[in-house]
Every structure is written in C-alpha cells, then in structure tokens.
Design a protein that fits this description.
Layout: E1 5-7, E2 25-31, H1 33-52, E3 55-61, H2 67-79, E4 84-90, E5 95-99, H3 117-120, E6 122-123, H4 126-129, E7 135-140, E8 146-151, E9 164-168, H5 177-191, E10 199-203, H6 212-225, E11 236-240, H7 248-254, E12 262-266, E13 268-270, E14 273-275, H8 285-300, H9 306-317, H10 330-341, E15 345-346, H11 347-351, E16 359-363, H12 376-381, E17 389-393, H13 416-422, E18 428-432, H14 447-452, H15 457-463, H16 469-481, H17 487-497, H18 501-514, H19 517-526, H20 532-545, H21 551-558, H22 565-574, H23 580-590, H24 599-626, H25 632-641, H26 651-658, H27 664-674, H28 683-695, H29 702-715
Parallel strand pairs: 2-3, 2-4, 4-9, 5-8, 10-11, 10-12, 12-16, 16-17
Antiparallel strand pairs: 1-3, 5-6, 7-8, 13-14, 14-15, 17-18
Length: 716
C-alpha cells in the first residue's frame, strides 16, 4: 500500500457564527493527485472553512486508486470514535459499480446477464458509506475508474449508511479552472450561510406531474415543512410544464431572478438532459390540426414504405393526404426535430443563465450520473452560478417515492449529505459539497443540537412532539434506528394523532419496515388520508403486502367516485395482488343496497371487470412458470416479471414448484424473484422454502443456495 499524503489544515476566522465553532466531528476530503496539483490551495481553504464550522477536515491524496482501500480508510476513521461523519471525493476517485443489489434501488431492474456490465450495474458511493454491507470484488474496467462489486448473499440487504458523501468531479477541466472556481464558491457559501426563505418546486411532464391533486397537496405539505415561507412574499413558487409550450426558459429564469434557495424538480431525465416539457394539449381547431400534422409526420418519417404508412393512418384517422406534407423533407424534419428537442434542458441551456439556487433536487432518472463525461446536474453545480450542491440519481429512479421526505430539516442547518444519508437509495447521491448547509431558521433548535440527541431515546421522544413535522419524523427515524422497544405503537399513535401530513407518511414508511399488525392497521386507514401522497403510498403498500385484511379498505378506495388520478392508477393496479374471490365479495358488500342504475353502477361494473381481468394475469404467470410445454426463455421472462408484479396468491404454488428442482437457472431466477416480496403477508412461506433450499446441499447447487440465503436476508 502506498503512503498517504495528508495536508494539514488550519482555521479561518471571522466566519458567520451560526453554529458551534468547536471541532466536534471529522470530515475527509479525498482528492486525486491531479486535483491537488491544480487546486491544492483552494482545497485547503475549503478544509479551513469546514474546520471553522466544527468539522476537523483532513485532505487525503488518493494514491490507492482502489475502492477497497478507500473504504477501509473511511471505516477506520468512523471506528476511531472521533465523530467522523462524512467525506467528499474530488476528481477521478474510483467508482464502485454495484451488482446483485437492485432491490436497494427505487426502480432499477436490468438483466445482468443480458446487458453489458457498465449498464447493468449501479454506480453508487453507498459502497463507501455503509460499512455493514459486504461485497465481493469482481473486476475493474480498463478505464481505471469503474470497479465492479457483487453484494454478498450473507450481507445485510438493506441500506443503513454510517456516513455521508458527495462527488466533485468535473470532466474536461484539465487546468482545474472550474474546480478552483467551484471551491471558492463553496467557501463563500460556508462563510455566509443563507436562510431558506424561497423554495421553488417544478412539475415536469409525466404520470405524477399530471395529477393536479398530487401537486396541490405537495404545496400544502411543503408549507408545513417550511413554515417560514408562509410569511414570505413568493416564498413558495410553483411552475408546471403546462404553463408554456417550451417551459425550460421560464424554469431557468425563475432560478436566476431573485435568490431561490432550494429547487425541487420533478421530471423525467437522461444523463445529459432534463426532460422537462412535452407537447401541450391543443386549444382550438387549428392548434389541434397542427398537432395532428406533427404526429403524422413523426410516424411516417423514415418508414420503409411511406405510402403504406400514410394509407394506414388515412384509413384509421380519416385525415387528408396533405397533412403528411414535408414528412421526409430536410427542412421540415429539421424544424420538427428542433421544436421537439427544445422541450428538454441541456448543459448549453444552463450555461446561458446565472443560476442563483443554492441546492437543487433532481427527482429524475440519470441526472446524477457523475461517472460519465457529461451529467446535467454537474452543469448547475459546477457552472458559474451560486449552486453549491444537488441531489441526483445515477440510474433510473421511481417517481412514486417520497422525494421531499424530511427536506424541511435543511431549515435547521442540516448538512445536505446528512439529509441524503437518511433518505437514501442506492442510486441517490450528492453532487458537489455534501457538507453544505443553510443557516438555521429556528433560534431554539439547530442540526448540531439534534445530532447530539440522536442516541438519547429520552430526548428523541421529546423531539417527536416538537412543533415541526420533519423534526418529528427525524426523531421517529432515529428511535427506529435505535431499536426503541415501543416504536411500533409510537408510530401508529403518531400516524393517528399528527396534524402534519408529512409526519404521517414518515410514520407509515417506518411501519412498513416493521411489517406488523400496526402496519396493516395504518395502511388501511391511510387509504382514506387527506394527503394524496399518504393515500398513494397506502395503495402501494396494499400491492406489496397483499394482506387479506386490507381488501375491504382497498375496495372502498378504488370505488370512491372522487379518487385522484394517480391514487386510482395505483389502486386499480393493487387489485392484481389479492385473491379475486375476496375482492369480489368485498365489492358486493360495498354496493349492497346501492342503486347501480346510475354512475355508481358504472364504477361497480368496471371494478368487477378489472378484478376478473387482473386475476387472469396471476393465473397465466403461474401457468407459464410451472407449465410443461414452456421454453426456458418464456419461464425466465415471466419469473423476472415477478420483481414488478408481486402476485401474493402465486407465492405458494411457485415455492412448491421451485422445490421440485426444475434446474439451476430456473431455480436461481425464481428464488431471486421471490426476494422482491419483502412486504408480503405470506413472506414467511418464502423464508421457509428458502431455508429448505439452503439445507438441500445434495439437491441444490451452491449458486441456488447462495441466492436463497440472499432472499432470506432480504425478507427477514
């Protein structure tokens, strides 16, 4: 092992005394040799600024160039007992590419056998943060940056990070000009911390964004999380993608004019673009015609037989031939392409604006792909504006999650890295400085005081009643982490008594980890919660649980004439995961004595038809997996579908089938798929089946038994 290079740090004076100035924790700045050579002075100044805030920052030159060595160093600092809390990676620090851990992501499910390693692995610095996880090193790419690891079957199968981290990586900055400018910006932000008095949230096109109820409730919840914004002119601003045909300029302008502190951006994304806008619903006859023309040109453009394609749409839609004019003409094609491309935000667009927003959350896929040469979140953070940090995802991300969870803690001076440590997925990362924080807006409480109480259950119980929803949620989270003996009843009581929407959601999420009777009780009640996100989460938990006790509440929700758009989508989907006979009986009881000659009859008949239709999916899936005249490819395809379609009535026949030893490939795939039934009311049957496989040394291979162990660890 090569010798470490450590830069000793000093203390700056005259900084804003918003927090305690006595060093009470440790922080590691790990930089590659190039970054130290070109920006050593600025890195030292950054370390000085942190020390002045109470973090004993040390700068470490990465001469290991291997994740295992870096992780060991960080683990030793954490175990030293000196309050080591986080790290930042500057430059080309090795990127762990994690395999066999897709269940730790919010949405990533890619066939590791079918797709290349760099696409089917998750770039994740959670490798450096969670010291309980156990990995097996597999290989490194020739680029010297990607290192592949498999999450061991016997490892814990949940994320509980011990520290936080962030990435400062600026590709193409050979002279260090951007790095030095960025670090100067960071130091200035630490010297003069802002109070949060202006927050922007944006709804881009996509399924959640098109639920107005979801957005109305999100605004109401954010005003509970940031109560100071109720007193501010334009304290909480909202932009919807429907405001303009090309929304990006309005959005970027809003982050430029004024002093927006936080921007919460909900949209689709790619590595190098924010997919913020979409074609608008037309108003008037002429707009509708132009919209149809654009659609028709896009459909026939590039077709093998243009005439055949045109005739198909003419017959289908009854449109004239003239509406296809220009489809394959260069000028019109370029015009159409430019118009559609202008829906997205790319790095060149960001560079045109002096973005003032200090912290940005990208609730989107791939915007945080720091391992690539261009990632859109980096354009904001490392550009010329005031943005210091962002939270973004390295791979695809689920939109049906709680992206705003505990974000109000940032008003108490919580470091963005610490916040990201708690609301974590394998793919979610801080881009930029993870130690960045705002000034506390509460003279009675700040993050430093809260963190000191994190191990004291008595103090946490008091904070669980503090008049702020996210402080309460934070206290409940730590009580859960501490193994507080009365946590289940406390969470249930908090759900039923709290006036705060976000506290109720946090309590329900923690109960979902316990998966006990209180979880079922609260989930059933939450289907009728006043907060849209609570109702949506409850329907999702119905899907994931399949507990028969939830069937009546689900039927009441799905037949509510006033059910919101996104909740209805999830509730209708949830019908797939229950015994159809139980649902039909509940439906008949629900409409007993009700006049079904009106709209209520439409709801009854549609729901009954959906129950019957969705039941067939489960039956057909089981038949394909267990049938005789089925190819291995067909079996594998339907087995992998179970990672998204947790059919609880299928658990027992599939478990019985896998014990018949249908072959290593089928066994491994099926056991892995059963590991996704983590909230199922019948998961104990899966555990018992897997334990039989683990014990069946003569009947099952080591590969299958290892996968069975992984599934047991996930379900227990």
């Amino acid at each position: 092992m090569k010798k470490l290079f450590v830069i000793l740090v000093g203390v700056l004076t005259g900084l804003t005394p918003s927090f305690s100035q006595t060093p009470e924790g440790e922080f590691a700045i790990i930089a590659d040799s190039h970054s130290i050579n070109v920006a050593g002075q600025e890195i030292n100044q950054y370390a000085d600024a942190l020390r002045a805030e109470g973090l004993n920052a040390v700068v470490i030159e990465d001469r290991w160039q291997h994740p295992d060595s870096i992780r060991l160093f960080l683990k030793r600092m954490y175990q030293s007992g000196k309050g080591f809390e986080g790290t930042v990676f500057i430059g080309d620090i090795p990127v762990p590419m994690i395999r066999d851990a897709q269940h730790l992501t919010s949405a990533f499910k890619m066939d590791q056998e079918r797709y290349p390693w760099h696409r089917s692995s998750v770039p994740s610095d959670r490798f450096y943060e969670d010291f309980d996880l156990e990995f097996t090193y597999l290989k490194a790419d020739t680029n010297g940056l990607y290192f592949y690891y498999s999450l061991n079957p016997g490892s814990p199968q949940v994320l509980t990070p011990d520290i936080y981290s962030g990435r400062i990586r600026i590709p193409g900055d050979d002279e260090g000009v951007k790095l030095k400018a960025y670090l100067k910006k960071v130091v200035e932000a630490h010297r003069n911390p802002d109070l949060i008095d202006e927050v922007l949230f944006f709804a881009g096109h996509g399924y959640n964004s098109e639920s107005m109820t979801a957005r109305i409730d999100e605004k109401a919840a954010l005003l509970q999380q940031f109560p100071q914004l109720n007193r501010q002119d334009n304290g909480l601003e909202y932009i919807d993608y429907t405001f303009d045909e090309h929304i990006k300029n309005r959005l970027l302008s809003a982050m430029t004019i004024g002093q927006t502190d936080i921007a919460l951006l909900h949209h689709h994304g790619s590595t190098d673009a924010q997919l913020a806008g979409s074609e608008q619903a037309a108003n008037g006859v002429q707009q509708n015609i132009e919209s149809i023309k654009f659609y028709l040109r896009s459909k026939v453009r590039g077709a093998k037989d243009t005439t055949e394609a045109k005739n198909k749409y003419i017959e289908w839609l009854g449109v004239p031939d003239a509406w296809f004019h220009g489809a394959n003409e260069k000028e019109q094609s370029e015009k159409d392409s430019a118009w559609f491309a202008d829906m997205d935000i790319i790095s060149a667009d960001v560079q045109k604006y002096d973005i003032k927003t200090r912290f940005i959350m990208f609730d989107a896929c791939f915007n945080g792909s720091f391992h690539t040469d261009e990632f859109i979140s980096g354009a904001y953070v490392f550009g010329g504006g005031r943005t210091v940090a962002a939270q973004a995802n390295t791979v695809n991300s689920l939109q049906d999650k709680y992206p705003d969870e505990m974000v109000g803690l940032l008003s108490y001076g919580m470091r963005v890295g610490e916040w990201n440590r708690m609301v974590c997925y394998l793919e979610s990362h801080i881009i930029g400085d993870p130690s960045f924080r705002f000034a506390s807006s509460d003279p009675k409480l700040d993050a430093d005081k809260m963190l000191k109480a994190s191990g004291n259950n008595g103090k946490l119980l008091k904070l669980a009643s503090y008049p702020h929803p996210d402080v309460q949620a934070w206290a409940l989270w730590h009580l859960y982490e501490n193994g507080y003996p009365g946590i289940s009843d406390l969470l249930a009581g908090k759900y039923f008594s709290s006036p705060y929407a976000t506290t109720r959601v946090s309590a329900m999420k923690l109960l979902a980890k316990l998966r006990d009777d209180n979880f079922v009780k609260v989930t059933g009640a939450a289907l009728n919660d006043s907060y849209e996100l609570a109702r949506r989460f409850a329907t999702i938990y119905c899907q994931e649980s399949g507990d028969p006790r939830l069937a009546p509440a689900l039927i009441r929700a799905v037949t509510d004439p006033n059910i919101s758009k996104r909740v209805n989508y999830q509730a209708q989907d949830a019908l797939s995961y229950f015994d159809p006979g139980l649902l039909k009986a509940g439906l008949d009881k629900r409409f007993e004595g009700v006049d079904t000659a009106n709209f209520l009859g439409v709801i009854y008949r549609q729901t009954a038809a959906n129950i019957e239709r969705k039941a067939k999916s489960c039956i057909e899936t089981v038949a394909t997996i267990t049938g005789k005249d089925v190819t291995e490819k067909e079996r594998i395809f339907d087995i992998r579908s179970l990672r998204n379609l947790t059919y609880h009535p299928a658990i027992r026949p599939l478990c019985d089938y896998v014990l018949t030893a249908p072959g290593e490939k089928i066994e491994t795939a099926l056991v892995e798929a059963l590991g996704w039934f983590s909230h199922s009311y019948d998961r104990q049957y899966i555990i018992e089946t897997c334990n039989k496989i683990i014990a069946g040394t003569e009947k099952f291979s080591e590969t299958v038994r290892s996968e069975a162990l992984r599934t047991v660890k996930r379900l227990e």
